[in-house]
Amino acid sequence: MMVDAVVSALAVAGHENLPVIVAETGWPSTGGDPTEVDAKLEYAEMYIKGLVGHLRSGVGTPLRKEGVSQAYIFELIDKDIVKQGTRNWGILYANMSKKYHVEFSGCDEIAVERVLLMRVCLVWWLLVGFFLV
After folding, report:
1. What keywords were assigned to this record (predicted)?
2. Which of 23, 39, 91, 98 has the most CB atoms in a 10 Å sphere around its CB?
3. Gap between the Cα atoms of 5 and 75, Å rounded
4. Residue range 7-27, pLDDT digits in tens
């Protein structure tokens, strides 16, 4: 529903036809604070798998039937050195092993562009973002 909030705000401003891009989305698999009970590996896996499934379905939102034009997962790899209070958002551990399996292939033609874009983003984080840490 957050996408529809942005679409509504764009429409009020007279820009209802602008494409919506989700710049960073994800769920922390570990929290920086012990009271942050929702930062769990299970929830992160459910969120990312749900996101990929939704993008594959080609179903949008009530106000944007075609869905978002692009979505980027935050982030590919956990940081190796974590300061106290830092969350881990990666779908891979710092040693590059999988936290859980996410199926990015097997798409139909409608949603293949969205999933391919997610792959490009993941590769970009692997090649560029990893070295910036």
Report:
1. Glycosidase, Hydrolase
2. 91
3. 24
4. 999 999 999 888 888 888 999
